[in-house]
């Protein structure tokens, strides 16, 4: 284990590195923001946190999930949110900053990672965030029926989403935890030929009436490996506003929904526990 604390006031912050269950966790200071950090796991970027401005979202996929958080309820209204996958708790911090008095549950299996993040990147004392160190599906099962306004799935083990978090049975558990009118959002990662992504859209369509997908156009065209944010609900989604926000990002995203999204699946069938496999591993070039 290697570790170095932040240096004294006035000097550049030092990186922190510790071995956690998921591998080598590194907190790298952001040279452009005084108290901001990037979390790497075995060299793969996982999260970015700005302690002075938790509403700042640096990563492309996290900004897109931030748009979902902004639109799930009227601006500023507290919500009940469940985060499956914690990382540096970036999105939970974002909810706490933009929707004060929200109540949140974070399920992050890697207890040593949680300890590292809590110690080096402490949460606001007023944030109503409870962290459970357990498997995502096991933690979701403990959420009361109809409790959550929003469930966010952002779980990666070795840069891959575990198979048991990709099935219709998993989404049945998500639906049980959601309140009427609640939303589900998932960070998905895939590359050509997009088999995993198409299967996940078909799986969500088997359980939710309304879907939208936000991604970089080059990812949707199968030209490179990347992230896509899937949003699902049982009532119409604010697609126009989501499209506007995604298009205005530094790296503009495209929103697919309705007939175009159904066509995008290319006849893919829903994934069940019996057929589920982990999401594909990213190519070595994905993080260079």
Structure characterization notes:
The radius of gyration is 18 Å and the shape is globular. Helices cover 27% and strands 27% of the residues. It has 9 helices and 12 strands. The strands form 2 sheets. Strands 7-6-5-8-9-11-10-12 form an 8-stranded mixed beta sheet, sandwiched between helices. Strands 1-2-3-4 form a 4-stranded antiparallel beta sheet, with helices on one face. The two termini are 24 Å apart. It has helices at residues 60-71, 90-98, 111-120, 136-141, 168-177, 195-205, 217-220, 239-247, 258-264; strands spanning 16-20, 23-29, 36-41, 44-50, 80-84, 103-107, 128-132, 148-153, 178-190, 210-215, 226-233, 254-257. With 288 residues, it is an alpha/beta fold.
Characteristic terms for this protein:
288 residues; alpha/beta; 8-stranded mixed sheet; 4-stranded antiparallel sheet; 9 helices; 12 strands; 27% strand; globular
Overall strand count: 12
Inertia-based shape: globular
Round the mean pLDDT to the nearest integer and report it. Answer: 94
Low-confidence stretches are 1-10
What is the alpha-carbon Rg in Å? 18 Å
Which helices and strands appear, and what pairs or packs with what?
Blueprint: E1 16-20, E2 23-29, E3 36-41, E4 44-50, H1 60-71, E5 80-84, H2 90-98, E6 103-107, H3 111-120, E7 128-132, H4 136-141, E8 148-153, H5 168-177, E9 178-190, H6 195-205, E10 210-215, H7 217-220, E11 226-233, H8 239-247, E12 254-257, H9 258-264
Helix pairs in contact: 1-2, 1-8
């Amino acid at each position: 284990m290697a570790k170095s604390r932040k240096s004294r006031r006035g000097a550049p912050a030092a990186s922190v590195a510790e071995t956690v269950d998921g591998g080598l966790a590194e907190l790298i200071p952001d040279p452009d923001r005084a108290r901001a950090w990037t979390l790497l796991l075995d060299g793969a970027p996982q999260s970015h946190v700005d302690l002075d401005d938790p509403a700042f979202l640096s990563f492309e996929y996290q900004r897109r999930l931030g748009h979902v958080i902004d639109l799930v309820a009227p601006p500023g209204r507290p919500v009940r949110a469940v985060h499956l996958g914690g990382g540096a708790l970036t999105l939970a911090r974002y909810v706490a900053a933009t929707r004060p008095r929200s109540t949140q549950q974070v399920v992050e299996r890697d207890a040593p990672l949680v300890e590292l993040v809590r110690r080096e990147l402490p949460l606001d004392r007023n944030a109503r965030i409870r962290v459970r160190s357990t498997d995502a599906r096991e933690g979701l099962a403990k959420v009361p029926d109809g409790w959550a306004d929003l469930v966010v799935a952002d779980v990666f083990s070795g840069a891959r989403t575990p198979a048991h978090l990709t099935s219709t049975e998993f989404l049945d558990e998500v639906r049980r935890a959601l309140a009427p009118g609640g939303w589900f959002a998932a960070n998905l990662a895939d590359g050509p030929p997009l088999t995993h992504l198409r299967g996940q859209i078909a799986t969500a369509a088997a359980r939710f009436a309304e879907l939208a997908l936000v991604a970089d156009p080059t990812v949707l065209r199968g030209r490179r490996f990347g992230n896509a944010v899937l949003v699902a609900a049982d009532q119409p989604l604010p697609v126009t506003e989501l499209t506007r926000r995604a298009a205005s990002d530094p790296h503009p995203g495209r929103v697919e929904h309705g007939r175009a999204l159904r066509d995008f699946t290319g006849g893919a069938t829903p994934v069940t526990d019996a057929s589920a496999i982990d999401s594909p591993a990213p190519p070595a070039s994905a993080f260079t």
